Every structure is written in structure tokens, then in C-alpha cells.
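=== RUN LOG ===
request id: a7f3
mode: sequence -> structure
chains: 1
length: 214
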Amino acid sequence: MNIQNRILRVVYAKERECLIASDVRGRVHKFDLDLNLIQSSPVVTYDRPVNSLFVYGEYVFTKDRFGSIGKWDLDTLEPHIVGPHTPDLARPVSAMAAAVEAEGYPAELSSALVGSCTNSSYEDITRTASIARQAASAGLRVKTPLLVTPGSERVRATIERDGLLADLEAIGATVLANACGPCIGQWKRDDVEEGDVNVIVNSYNRGCRSSRSR
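=== RESULT ===
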């Protein structure tokens, strides 16, 4: 289910000129005025729908269906990376550099993947293409292989019609067929040898070692 389909309450944060929303899973999200997702609060372990939402200054106050009150600093809402190998390990992007050093993760990404059958709607691809256009306007291209999998033939045809496919390819991304692939391990990699430790980042739901990595 897309984030927009989970939203329960939306309020306008005048001082930040953005929209703040709560969802059925107990998370808080920040959107721009064009309804593009900017940031989200961390993933919670148990679903606790947030039914009340109030913005005051730099803070968001929430109340879930069990009566628990939450307070969020708007500056703490930032993208998170989950993993490796378990969905229970979530960190804000700002904490990843320290995690790489502490855990001994490889510091360079070998591939970035967007899509899979569950996270590759037209909306998802639109966000990716928006970032691609910003990169292109700055004269940038991808340094790490970027693979994009549309969720269906309809999505693929629509992103081609609307120019999103061209936006992605303009920065060096590869748009794959709308079929099962890296998400379930159907990914013949020529960039690493069997047994090489490497890191990929993706928008998939799967996070186990055998799904994608060698």
C-alpha cells in the first residue's frame, strides 16, 4: 500500500510551507505542496494509527488510537535506510556513515535498484524521475549502476509516454523489463565475483542475503 493510501490526517505547516500527514501505521510524513514525499519518521514495530495531528512551530504533536501522545521535531524527519538483511534494522541516512565505520560495511555501493512488483507504481517512478531531472539539470550522471524495474507493462508504457523513462535514461539509469528479476535473486551479476562482499541499496521489500547479493 502506498503511503498516500495510508494517510489518516493532513495539516498545513505554514512556517515550513509543507504538509504534515499521519498514517494508519503510526508514522508521520512531510510532503511538499505538490504532494511529493520529502521525509518520513522511522518505521514503528507495531501499527498504531495516528488519529490526531497538530503542528505548532517546529513540532508535530500526535495522538494514536490508544491515547499515546507523540512529539516530533520537524528537523528529525528524514529518509531512513533499512538493513542489511533484516527489516528491523532502520537508521536515518545521517547515521549511515557512522554505521559503515562501526559495522565494517563496504563504503561504496555496487548497485542501486528501484522497483519490484510492490514498490514500482507510477508514483514511485515519478519520484525517481524527479530526482533524475534535478541531477541532469546539474550536469550529473549516475556513478553507480541504477536499475529501475516498472511494476507492470502499464506502468512501463505510461512512464515512456510521459517522458519519465527518458529522464531516467538521460542520467545513465537502466530500465529493466517489468518481470521478476533482482528482487527474487534472478540477477546475473558481472560486476562482482562469487563471494565478494558488496553493498547495494534498493526499494524492495525483501532484505535477506539470498534474495539479491552474492
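=== NOTES ===
The CA atoms of residues 25 and 161 lie 34 Å apart.
The chain has two domains: 3-76, 80-212.
=== END ===
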